[in-house]
Amino acid sequence: MKATIALAAAAALLGGAAIAQPQGPRQTTVCLDVAGHQRPVTCRIGEASRIAQREDICQCLAGGQPITIAVCPSGVRPPGESAAYERGRYAAVQGGSLIGANWRGAPICVATRSLAGG
Length: 118
Fold this sequence. Notes:
Helix content is 24%, strand content 25%. By secondary structure, it is an alpha+beta fold. A hairpin with a 5-residue loop joins strand 1 (27-32) and strand 2. The longest helix is centred in the N-terminal third of the chain and has 18 residues, at 2-19.
């Protein structure tokens, strides 16, 4: 009986620790020009914390169109930049988004970036 209670308490503590782990954003914004080249993006970060990081407003001050893109999951690297990838990435934009888009069988995504520094 005591072992069951101790086991249940340990499971609850481990579950709480898993919930409290920092989680970065699942999507972000990039700026793409008409040739598919990435341009610098400027984002304002609101209520950034270790647990819930999010970008409030992202702008393409150096030109380009703001595009919503997925952040690569752990263990996945974004496709390497090339002229063919840039054309394919730009062609895959649907309604200002690349969420769920693929290029040559690989997800179109960007590497995780830290929001703590601004």
